[in-house]
Amino acid sequence: MTEFSPFSAVITQPFMQRALVGGLLTGALGGLLGSFAVLRQLSFFSDALGHSALLGLSLGILLGLNPTLVLIPFAVLFALLVNLLVQRSQLPTDALLNIVYSTSLAFAVVALSLVTTYKGGIQQLLFGDILGVSWLDLALIAVLLVGAVAYLLVSLRAQVLVTLHADLAGAFGVGSQWHRIAFILLLAVVVAVSIKAVGVLLISAFVVIPACASRLVSRRFGTYLVLSSVIGGGCAVLGLLGSGLTNLPSGPCVVIVQFFGFLMALLWSLRGRQERGRAALA
Asked: Known SUPFAM superfamilies for this protein (predicted)?
């Protein structure tokens, strides 16, 4: 019975229970949106948005306001601005995003150097503090998850067309540009709300890794969407439990579990490809 006592001690702590719920919701939400972001080649956009979020947090701290409340409108405005620059500029998208997030990161570091009253640490901003999430944070993430699922279900046909074939979507009368902007704004809000739990440097992993793992083993689009959320939420819970048992940082532990999940999906995919190849030759 004693071999279970460390595990029981971890999961009975109120802060750990909030962390597990928060990790499950954040991971599922990141995986769901990541499934579309990966196919639309917006992976680097989510990374740039996460890095640039540090500037929004810095402004909130510098102004003495709630950083999360400042970050949400900042992330929305940043997403709209970057989308406009990508459409109007002749520069490659990845180069433009690199310029934007590097510059905003530099401004954020300068802004943080001017702050003398912030009680938090730079490590919490960079890597998150999912163990410190409140029930209010969880409620906000849950509302976002429900809203995202509802929006994607209502517009699923349009989302699939825009994701897989934007030109064909236009032929069917689907406003691909409107759906693109709506998805980018939704992604921006989700990133802004999840930063507190996940951190600036790790937020893109929550979006990209579960979706990539799901894509390797899924043959149907519906399976791909569901499995992305399951992998995201499941890896978050396992990573948090590992963090609680080993006293290691929670955010990095979750990403490490996600990485091993991706490796398992990759090996499964390679094995399936070899078996199909042998079956074709038989």
From this structure: ABC transporter involved in vitamin B12 uptake, BtuC
